[in-house]
Specification:
alpha+beta, OB fold (Dihydrolipoamide Acetyltransferase, E2P), Chloramphenicol Acetyltransferase, binds oxidized coenzyme A, EC 2.3.1.12
């Protein structure tokens, strides 16, 4: 093994061009032709591939550096056979490498075995770098490797929003697009679908003119959730039905269960009973367990009962889905709730853990508040908000009696659910939670 310097090869007329992407890290194992960096002139971007295989030992460049032929890119540990003088690709290819052959024209015949590959910059003319088999990504501004990556995943690059310079689409943008589509049950979010809803943009305000400020970037979850909620808020005609359930008896039973299970450390919160009551409600009112099809012409009714539960994490809101809640006991659900919340907070949830939900619950009961208006988690058609229970004087026909009342806030898609059914659903939930023996009937 030896350490080898890898230099920029002959890149034709490109001189003193800016590095817009460093595609490798120290420690990465690189095969011949793996791209090391992307450079960009005002006409096109170009990936510089590695002429040798090995392990990256040192990066000699960073984003923003300007390079020309012969600039040092990385120090690489290579096998003895290829060790020697600094390596830059040597002979011109007869044609661009098929693995990278996006149909891009090489500006002025770079002399390298592993040819740098061009793609058009948004400022370049239409003719440059028309890449293209099917699907046609020719108008998308992305490097060849990102185009290849998108094709492999079946992502439509024309729908991916670029976050790179001048709107260039990066590999991370493609990943975010795929994740977005997967997370939201196959429905792309507003940004992913390019739908801006025609509203005027928010003004760009310099707040520092009024005092000290700090700019804190939103987390990825914040951004995705924000887009998704915004889309649902605008597309779905929401109505929120408020109600309350008398959970005095349920609470006594829950406390008793917790005492009995104190040694095991298992804690049962009201939420698992609420999940069970919701499933009973979905069975009694199947429209709540449905989704509108894409054209909005048919209801897809589901015969399974998967419930999403909103979990508050330091990075933002996530909604893991609890499958087949109808088939699970209170103890099983409590265990699963504990596991899933921990997974969510440790950022270990996979996209599959957040898919396939029928109905969501957002419980702020452990925090406080009396009621709120949750946003429907499309393609579901309703969501239940739960606030903190409190003791209230309730008239029992003869006198006011102290009862523990649980506030319920049910938001629903008014295209699918009428107001009368909304009120029936919360009344039914209140009945189930008021006497949990009914959940067995
Ligand atoms: N009324 C009164 N007390 C309640 C309650 C309610 N409705 N719900 C829970 N509590 C109590 C619990 O019994 C527990 O009390 P003890 O510690 O004395 O036993 C305490 O509040 C904390 O409960 P918890 O929040 O840890 O557990 P949970 O099962 O109720 O909820 C989870 C789990 C993951 C949903 C919750 O931790 C969470 O993240 N909630 C926030 C969800 C959110 O952000 N929603 C807003 C999304 S925007 O629509």
């Amino acid at each position: 093994m030896a350490i080898q310097a890898v230099l920029v090869p002959d890149i034709g007329s490109f001189k003193d061009v800016e590095i817009i992407e460093v595609l490798v890290n120290v420690g990465d194992t690189i095969a011949v032709e793996d791209s090391l960096i992307t450079i960009e002139s005002d006409k096109s971007s170009m990936e510089i591939p590695s002429p040798v295989a090995g392990v990256i030992k040192e990066l000699k460049v960073k984003v923003g550096d300007r390079i020309s032929e012969g600039s040092l890119v990385v120090m690489m540990e290579v096998g003895d056979a290829v060790a020697g003088a600094a390596v830059a690709p040597q002979a011109p290819p007869s044609q661009p490498s098929p693995a990278r052959g996006e149909g891009a024209k090489i500006a002025s015949e770079p002399k390298s075995v592993v040819a740098p590959v061009l793609s058009p910059s948004p400022l370049a003319g239409e003719g440059l770098g028309k890449g293209g088999s099917s699907p046609d990504f020719s108008k998308a501004y992305a490097t060849p490797s990102v185009r290849k990556f998108a094709r492999e995943l079946g992502a439509d690059l024309n729908k991916v929003k670029g976050s790179g310079r001048k709107g260039r689409i990066t590999q991370d943008d493609v990943k975010a697009y795929i994740k977005d589509v997967m997370s939201f049950g196959g429905m792309p979010s507003a940004a992913a679908s390019g739908n801006t809803l025609g509203v005027a943009p928010m003004p760009d305000i310099d707040f520092s003119q009024w005092g000290a400020i700090e700019t804190v970037p939103l987390s990825r979850i914040n951004k995705l959730t924000g887009e998704f909620l915004h889309r649902n808020w605008v597309h779905i005609p929401h109505v929120t039905q408020f109600d309350q359930a008398d959970i005095t008896d349920l609470e006594a039973f829950r406390k008793q269960l917790n005492e009995e299970n104190a040694k095991s450390g298992m804690k049962i919160t009201p939420l698992v009973f609420i999940m069970k009551a919701v499933v009973a409600g979905l069975k009694a009112y199947p429209r709540f367990n449905s989704s509108l099809d894409a054209k909005g012409e048919n209801l897809i009714r589901k015969s399974y009962y998967n419930i999403g539960v909103a979990v508050d994490t330091p990075d933002g809101l996530v909604v893991p889905v609890f499958r087949d809640v109808d088939k699970k006991s209170i103890m099983q659900l409590s265990e699963e709730l504990k596991e899933m919340s921990a997974k969510a907070r440790d950022k270990k949830l996979k996209p599959a853990d957040m898919q396939g939900g029928c109905f969501s619950i957002s419980s702020l009961g452990g925090i406080g508040g009396t009621k709120f208006t949750p946003i429907v988690n499309a393609p579901e058609v309703a969501i239940l908000g739960v606030s903190k229970s409190d003791m209230q004087p309730i008239w029992n026909g003869k006198e006011f009696a102290p009862r523990l009342m649980l506030p319920l806030s049910l938001s629903y898609d008014h295209r699918v659910i009428d107001g009368a059914d909304g009120a029936r659903f919360t009344t039914y939930l209140a009945k189930m939670l008021g006497d949990i023996r009914r959940l067995l009937v």
